[in-house]
């Protein structure tokens, strides 16, 4: 496939699409419940620190590898280190994206179902029990599998159209609307009686609650939210023109990600505490809290429908990136049809996602190391594959990749001081890998 035939048409399109790939479920769905389960404000502060000091340098690194080679993930590493073990990093990313999308699409199906139910006004009801509603929807195997199937079909359709005509056009239109609606929800959430307790929980750090495991989860959340570690951003940046500053683009994506995470926390936790809900509810937290908040607003059902549709889009933009890395890996070297490859990949992902979809109903009692298939898949990707992938990328940039190419790609499109590159490179070579190793060992009880 000739990359020149399919590129981002604008810098804004690339940034919004990359932000869409990063934000999605990571910031909006997973961040609030992970924060609720791991100590509140202290977890949020660690998340910000890891995002800025570890996640952003890694995001720049993936951008450099992708644009520097103009190839998707697998081919990029093979071209930079032919006939060497380093080329496995691209394959690691494709496998990680596949596992991630198999359970991610289950949650996407939940969002799709909630969106469909909200349009005719079937979610917000008088005296509704929202935890029970969520349990009813996810407890029905036919509904969860139908949601999974529809979500995967949407992904296949968009990715089959390619970068400019599929992913970029949709991102430019809907990402800004998501920000606007989130701000509306936050304004309402913080004005509930008792909301201040939720704000304190979210923004006031209590480090006495932190454990080594919480720190690992914060690191994994930073990687999950920025979509680094599985080379998704390598593939996205391979479609990028040379006049775009990679550090500036990465900074924009990172700041948007932190901002949306902040909005998500301010939208969720004031409602949780105002209505006596449980902050450590888990994956269902968002689906329980949002209807509760919108029910207290004029025209709440209308606003809920609009927000869920926008949230569905944010979820889709993330999943597009996962299906894109898989699809491009099989269309890069051989003249295979993008439509055919995305269809086959989507079918395999759907089949692989069925056990995760059944984790809340028929397979609820089936455990892997004490976790359901859904939770085990999430743990494997977020706390093992993403950090390990980030470690591999940091070592590759720091000790293997051609330094001239690295500096050249880092420097295009801006006039930052030379010290900026040196600071970033030393972070990648020493701080990033050492931090990941220390957090890993601490979580295992070695340190």
UniProtKB/TrEMBL annotation:
Localization per record: Membrane
Main location: membrane
TM ranges: 12-31, 43-65, 86-113, 133-161, 173-195, 215-236, 248-277, 297-320, 341-359, 379-399, 427-446
Record's keyword annotation contains Membrane: yes
InterPro entries noted in UniProt: Na/ntran_symport (IPR000175), SNS_sf (IPR037272), YocR/YhdH-like (IPR047218)
Topological category with respect to the lipid bilayer: Multi-pass membrane protein
Entries under SUPFAM superfamilies matching the protein: SNF-like
Keywords: Membrane, Symport, Transmembrane, Transmembrane helix, Transport
Coiled-coil region: none
Family named by the database record: Belongs to the sodium:neurotransmitter symporter (SNF) (TC 2.A.22) family.
Protein name: Transporter
